[in-house]
Amino acid sequence: MGAKTLERGEVGEVTELLNDNLTIAHQIASRLKRRYSWVAMDDLYSYALLGLTMSANAYDSTRGVPFPNFASQKGMFWAIDEMRKDGVLRRRSSSNMPRVLPFSEAIGRSVAESWTPDVRDSHADDDRRQLEARDLCMALLSHLRSRDRNLLVMYYADHMTFKEIAKVFSISESSVCLRHKALIRRLRRLATVMRVA
């Protein structure tokens, strides 16, 4: 939903809304500081003022929502959007973000000094192994007949007993058990061959 365009007489109303509700910008800046502690408070207040101004321009009193309620929510969202557009915020966890210096401290510092540390994902190796195991299982199952695949799916995925599987295939329980053992031996041999290849 776009912001409404202002008529000439409404400019004064927007200015009045801003002047009467400057405390909302302080509240928004304080809330932003709790979420984005690495950003200087002066910068956050500037973005909060920008969000408040955008809220005042978009405010429609005929909807029955008081301006402070509207501005405290919308102003916060617009402030965050503007911070993202300016590159102050990036979509990753705040603990990995480099500290953004206030303008006065940043003068004279080299851009090369700001860096983002490489963070190793401790679960990446486990996830990779699980994906490789899943791919291997899919490749192994593709070498089986559909009846044998169904037997393994019923046993491992559907958690059916050998007795229940025997009823489905209309064979004895011992036949299902022997067939299962033979399939597992075959899959182990195939897995060894596929890993070597």
Describe the protein in words.
The chain is mainly alpha-helical and 197 residues long. It folds into two domains: 10-104, Rna Polymerase Sigma Factor, Chain: A; 136-196, Winged helix-like DNA-binding domain superfamily/Winged helix DNA-binding domain (Arc Repressor Mutant, subunit A, Orthogonal Bundle). Helix content is 65%, strand content 0%. Helix 2 (22-35) packs across helix 4 (67-85) and helix 3 (41-58) crosses helix 4 (67-85). It is elongated and about 90 Å long. The two termini are 58 Å apart. 13% of the residues are buried. Mean pLDDT is 77; it is low at 1-9 and 106-116.
Structural descriptors:
197 residues, mainly alpha, Rna Polymerase Sigma Factor, Chain: A, Arc Repressor Mutant, subunit A, 2 domains, 9 helices, elongated
How is this fold's topology laid out?
Blueprint: H1 10-20, H2 22-35, H3 41-58, H4 67-85, H5 103-106, H6 124-141, H7 146-157, H8 162-169, H9 173-196
Helix pairs in contact: 1-3, 2-3, 2-4, 3-4, 8-9
Report the helical percentage: 55-70%
Spatial shape = elongated
* Count of DSSP H/I helices: 9
CATH topology of the largest domain: Rna Polymerase Sigma Factor, Chain: A
- Indicate the CATH class of the largest domain: Mainly Alpha
Please provide the count of β strands. 0
* Main sheet record: none
